[in-house]
Amino acid sequence: MGRAVTVATCALNQWALDFEGNLERILRSIGIAKSRGARYRLGPELEICGYGCSDHYYESDTLLHSFQVLAKLLESPATQDIICDVGMPVLHRNVRYNCRVIFLNKKILLIRPKISLANAGNYRELRWFTPWNKARHVEEYFLPTIIQEVTGQETVPFGDAVLATKDTCLGAEICEELWAPNSPHIEMGLDGVEIFTNSSGSHHVLRKAHARVDLVNSATAKNGGIYVLANQKGCDGDRLYYDGCAMISVNGETVAQGSQFSLDDVEVLVATLDLEDVRSYRAEISSRNLAASKVSPYPRVKVNFALSCSDDVAVPTCMPIQWRHHSPEEEISLGPACWLWDYLRRSKQAGFLLPLSGGIDSSATACIVYSMCHQVCLAVKNGNADVLADARRIVNDETYVPEDPREFCKRIFTTCYMASENSSQDTCNRAKLLAEQIGSYHINLNIDAAVKAIVGIFSMVTGRTPHFSVYGGSSRENLALQNVQARIRMVLAYLFAQLTLWTRGMPGGLLVLGSANVDESLRGYLTKYDCSSADINPIGGISKTDLKNFIQYCIENFQLTALRSIMSAPPTAELEPLVDGQVAQTDEADMGMTYAELSIYGKLRKIAKAGPYSMFCKLINMWKEICTPREVASKVKHFFRMYSINRHKMTTLTPSYHAENYSPDDNRFDLRPFLYNTTWSWQFRCIDKQVNALYFLHGFTFKALAT
Predict the structure, then answer these.
(1) Active site residue 149
(2) How many structural domains is the chain composed of?
(3) pLDDT tens for residues 2-25?
(4) Taking CA 539 as the corner, what is the angle to CA 537 and CA 544, rounded to the nearest 5 degrees?
(5) Is 175 annotated as catalytic?
(6) Fewest Cβ atoms nearer than 10 Å: which of 42, 55, 325, 619?
């Protein structure tokens, strides 16, 4: 037999429960793979139904429609003479499994259930599926009638097995199994499997891509082999953006890299690889060969098919490449932009509306929309017919071609500066200038009349008129008056989103964008049902620090000079009266902590799983050069008081793009109570005891630091 095998993997923009669209994209990927000479095609996890079906997995309809799509795939001429590996849920003996269904020429070769389920962070696979716990065990699976009628098979192998073709041996992993400490590829490789496949549903997190690449390359560095990874891409209906990065690795080196962010619904990677490279690589690893002599064998499903040709000596094979990683600023520019595009086109709305305050957060959100417009124009320029069709439908013009990002932005993006008597002219000018530079349709309005009307109703009913603290009012009055302004802005945002296009003689409505960052949400520094309440929020999972760096990136790469003054201005809500025409209120003073401190608190609370006492213990060492233990204790207590008082706001948090592993998203990522004992009496007493003990034991050291 030959030695050069040609395999294909792909990244597909699948959509939960969009069986028709998912089928079309799968068939398109198979057609591309075949046209490039591939003899094996791998697709993403659960690609038939879409990964994010959630509790729809409980429904028998989801299983039924998945098998109906599988029947269409089996019948299609496109799937002939190529091994196809697709993902779908399968019910076996009344237990639901997350499976790979591998077939060739209208015959199912193997149904391979997932062994290690993802059940942390955003993943809840154990809620819907059961792991296959029978290692190296295969059972008979009785096919439903609609599949029997196509394949002529009554039963097929179901379980933990590998495929033995005429020229090599393939073994499957599914997503989480690559990340598990006892990954199947380890013993499969020892048992002679030469090609490992992994179908993933892996979402984007800032600075995560390198971890996935390192895992894939390390999978074959010690054991040799070919590793083929497929992944979903795009927004399939919730807060996550699946970031593609399909790849192929040989003996620890990447030979093919897919894009991480792209508006292409179907991306296929094809590579031709030399099996003898694997065999010679393994030959000299004596420790591997000794371990292989003792490994328990996997059941092998024999396949009368070859991934190579008999005469392939002159066939060129792929060489190692250097993986190109995006910077965090590029990730922010591209990931949320692609997510917004998917949400816009799939929701069938006509664009976005953003309350643009002239501050960093709303400006960063505006820049992400502008980046999306750049990506759309670039995709159309590169011949993407799907993007062109979507753009024409969104702007309601069948002849339209988006060529200029600013012009496209004018059609689909409305920004709105909502001034009050507490707003400065500086922020108004900043918002207006940024809107001009990105091309958005910009509106200036004043909310004072609405605020006075609302407060007037309260005064008429109660006979009392609240005042700001600078005019002698209490803190309760001060906060209530700030909240009225903030909530009126939310109401007006939705009114203008629904009717702005109507006033311009254009059809459709706009999606309202929120712009609260992850740190403000963690601290609860936002008004419940203010402009943080929106349809979606592209920056809700991004820290203030990263947003500032992103703003600098936009200045340099998009030439948005208006951002310079926005960067240099202190963040402010502008909800309290001005002093001599200047802003007196600042975010960090209001919060009683800096944004840099908030990021640290967030990472310790979520990623390090630190409660108040553990956080204090970590910070007295981290901050020993800048704070005394008593100061650290005060900061930690203040954070946890504010966090717990405001936790209820997370229950109504606008759905946000997930980008940080310390996100406080209450939907499924960060499950916590929203009614706390905010005194934390026991926890804070433990901190106080530790502070006293430290001063008793090391008093002179800390006194020196204090001075």
Answers:
(1) no
(2) 3
(3) 689 999 999 999 999 999 999 999
(4) 145
(5) yes
(6) 55
